[in-house]
Amino acid sequence: MKVATFNANSLRSRLHVVVPWLQTQAPDVLCLQETKVQDVDFPHEALRPTGYHCVFRGEKKYNGVAILTKSEPQDVAFGFDDEPLDAARLARARVGPCLIVNTYVPQGQDRQLPAFQYKLDWLGRLRTYIERHARPDEPVLWMGDLNTAREAKDVYDPDRLWGHVCYCQEVQEALKGVMDWGFVDVFRQHCDEPGHYTFWDYRMPKALERNLGWRLDYIMATPPLAKRCRTCWIDRPARALAKPSDHTFLVAEFDI
Predict the structure, then answer these.
(1) Is the pTM of this model over 0.70?
(2) Is the Cβ–Cβ distance between 134 and 206 less than 8 Å?
(3) Domain ranges, ordered by start, for the chain
(4) Which candidate in 100, 118, 122, 226 could, as Cys together with 221 as Cys, close a disulfide (CB 3.0–4.6 Å)?
């Protein structure tokens, strides 16, 4: 089983990247974040040639998640099933033997603003949500843009960037709180080196060429599934395409 995650930063603006990528890489599952399109405008026709099933929940200009699958997904659901109602940041589906949880974690804006506490609370709600819907001894994949760098080697300049809303103790602890339920970061199972990133800021001149990046996108697997992960890799060349997202694809393959 081949799965991938990609923050498209506007799906309709990234169709020239996503459609050929699906046709050449042919993952069984692709999780998308920041689709930035309300449901009525979702680009069904543009994606139809790929043959993928699409389930999605979006908003105009902001957020938005989608799961694209070769086989028809089952038990599809969106958002937290508690209160308060949340933005379009979470999608869940069962694909074959696996439960897929696709999330776009809030960025946090500034540690002095309510948006930062919202991010921490959101991750806490996610832990509760996963406890309610899954078990760590089952095949579960949690994928998406988690807007968190777990370790110093996940950012290009750890000393200067420490304290950023995506790289600070509070956020790392909140992410660990979800992982402690029973998730393995499968990229780090296969690569322990620094310098491997999934996001390069548009605003930094030649960020990709200078490799001034962050590892913000993850594929997390429960232990039974993580043991079956034979590879996990970042598609860096896709970030160098014309009119790219500021993120790129993260891909994992499992022997199931």
Answers:
(1) yes
(2) no
(3) 2-254
(4) 226
Bridge partners (DSSP) of residue 6 are: 32
**Residue 201 token pair:** 């800021």
Looking at the domain that runs over 2-254, which CATH code has it been given? 3.60.10.10
**Distance separating alpha carbons of residues 35 and 171, to the nearest angstrom:** 24
* Spatial distance between the Cα atoms of 57 and 64, rounded to a whole number of angstroms: 6
Query: Which amino acid does the sequence have at 140?
Result: V
Q: Tens digit of pLDDT for each residue in 93-148?
A: 999 999 999 999 999 999 999 999 999 999 999 999 999 999 999 999 999 999 99
Catalytic residue ranges? 104, 145
DSSP strand pairing (29-33 vs 2-7): parallel
Residues 6+ away with beta carbon under 8 Å from 211: 156, 195, 197, 200
Q: If you compute the radius of gyration of the chain from its CA atoms, what whole number of angstroms results?
A: 17
